[in-house]
Design goal:
With 496 residues, the chain is of the alpha/beta class. The protein contains twelve helices and 17 strands. Helix 8 packs antiparallel against helix 9 and helix 10 packs parallel to helix 11. The protein is elongated, with a radius of gyration of 43 Å. The protein starts with 8 loop residues before the first strand and ends with a strand.
């Protein structure tokens, strides 16, 4: 094909000089570059040196006639559009020329407008052809780029240390990297395309992946992480998310598998160590605390003000250590799965009323308002351990009292949301910055600033709450804003 700068270059091959001169004048005014030749051989020689987009070719010429020239042009210059000029030739000759590859024909004698129309039509044909070629080239480049990108993505996925599994909207496995095959104990040569249950043996994870693939979990916030034991006794952590299309429709699911065996072993060793040390410390600390209490009672009136203050501080600190040891043992039991011993139906609003009534005295000391807001209709019972529920909401309400200024307000709301009972503990206290919200459920972590540094605590209350809520298949969320307050939301499923 000719270059873009000779798109309107026209070669006129005609033995009549008047035709050549007249046609050149008309086409030049149209902005065409015009070349002329009086014989067929001369025209072919010009084309071999200077390419043209269009050839006006007379069919009747001395020497090499137009039909021979047409065949040579189509043989060596496929992209050139040939418009044959017929006069002495018959209509059958024009038709034969069209069959041999001519683009159009114009009869002699012709008017200037006839020439303009047929040449403009040829120029438009060239333009459309070139645009089509550019579009096809662009499409080929896009396909090549997509193929390259797919290859690159596949290479990256296959080299990831974590397992990756992708399903379609029918729950069929469409992609699985080698790490995933290793974690799930799947033969490297086993083909893909079967339902997820053919590859995933853990029933709970398989059900979750199928539900996500079918569009049951379009909200990322309500999808839990699952931990299970793989074929090689490895602890695997699975996170699954929907794959969404442009219109937010679910196209399938993607599952990420991570080997957390080392962390679980380390957690178990830490828990065993903490439990052992805590058991060893609790007895002597309790003895010291009791002895201090006896000493203070026996020497009432005999101690100086300074000595009495020191003994009181020592007693307070030992009590704090005993409380911390109790919390550590609670966390060890939660991590070991030794929680929720006595499962029975619990009317949660009645239990919350008891906690609020009990905590009311602490709130009154700080002139705070502590209120419980329950719906008029009776809520269904929860099958849970009452002591675990008391620990969850007792800790949350106690925190709200501790971290709210004098005269503040704490509200406890309970209602039904879907299959969950929702409890919200909200205060208008000190609050905290967003950067702390991901850390407050870590052991011993406490937010300290000018307003909270004098508040005593072990930093274990919220980790205990989180562990108990997780053991009930519940969810706990927190929202907070400095100087505006904090809101904890707990969702507990009625039927676990």
């Amino acid at each position: 094909m000719t270059n873009s700068n000779d798109a309107t270059r026209v070669l006129i091959v005609d033995d009549e000089q008047s035709i050549r001169i007249g046609s050149e004048r008309i086409l030049s005014r149209m902005g065409c570059q015009v070349l002329t030749a009086g014989r067929g051989e001369e025209g072919l020689d010009i084309l071999s040196k200077e390419p043209a987009a269009i050839v006006l070719l007379d069919m009747k010429m001395p020497g090499m006639d137009g039909m021979e020239v047409l065949r040579e042009i189509k043989k060596h210059h496929e992209g050139i559009l040939v418009i044959v000029i017929t006069g002495f030739a018959t209509v059958e000759t024009a038709i034969e020329a069209m069959k041999n590859g001519a683009y159009d024909f114009i009869p002699k004698p012709f008017e200037p407008d006839q020439l303009r129309i047929v040449v403009n039509r040829a120029i438009e044909r060239i333009r459309l052809t070139r645009e089509a070629e550019k579009s096809e080239q662009a499409r080929q480049r896009t396909l090549h780029d997509l193929d390259t990108e797919k290859s690159r993505v596949r290479t990256i996925i296959e080299s990831l240390p974590n397992g990756v599994l992708v399903t379609n909207r029918l729950g069929q496995v469409m992609l699985m990297n080698p790490a995933c095959r290793g974690y799930l104990g799947i033969d490297p040569e086993r083909p893909l395309g079967e339902p997820a249950k053919a590859y995933i043996k853990d029933k709970e994870l398989c059900e979750l992946v199928t539900e996500i693939s079918q569009g049951c979990h379009l909200d990322f916030d309500d999808i839990p992480s699952l931990e299970f034991v793989g074929p090689d006794e490895k602890y695997l952590l699975a996170r699954a998310r929907p794959v969404l299309g442009e219109k937010k429709e679910c196209l399938g699911a993607i599952v990420n598998l991570a080997d957390v065996t080392a962390m679980r072993v380390l957690d178990r060793l830490k828990s065993e160590f903490v439990a052992k040390v805590s058991h060893e410390l609790r007895s002597p600390l309790s003895t010291i605390h009791e002895q201090l209490a006896l000493l203070m009672n026996d020497m009432v009136g005999q101690l100086s003000q300074n000595d009495a203050h020191l003994l009181s501080r020592a007693k307070e600190k030992t009590q704090g250590l005993i409380s911390m040891i109790g919390d550590l043992l609670d966390i060890s039991r939660i991590e070991a799965g030794n929680v929720c011993h006595e499962i029975k139906p619990v009317q949660l609003e009645d239990l919350l009323k008891s906690i609020v009534d009990f905590m009311g005295a602490r709130a009154e000391v700080k002139n705070q308002t502590l209120s419980l807001h329950s719906p008029e209709e009776k809520l269904p019972c929860l099958n849970a351990d009452p002591l675990a529920l008391e620990s969850i909401f007792g800790n949350l309400i106690a925190n709200a009292i501790n971290y709210t200024q004098e005269g503040g307000q704490i509200d406890v709301h309970i209602n039904m949301v879907g299959i969950n009972i929702r409890v919200v503990v909200k205060d208008n206290g000190f609050g905290m910055e967003e950067k702390y919200l991901d850390k407050i459920f870590e052991r011993f972590y406490r937010v300290k600033n000018d307003k909270t540094r004098f508040i005593t605590g072990t930093g274990l209350g919220l980790p205990i709450v989180k562990g108990l809520v997780d053991s009930m298949n519940g969810i706990i969320q927190v929202e907070s804003e400095p100087n505006r307050g904090t809101m904890f939301t707990v969702l507990l499923p009625v039927n676990r």
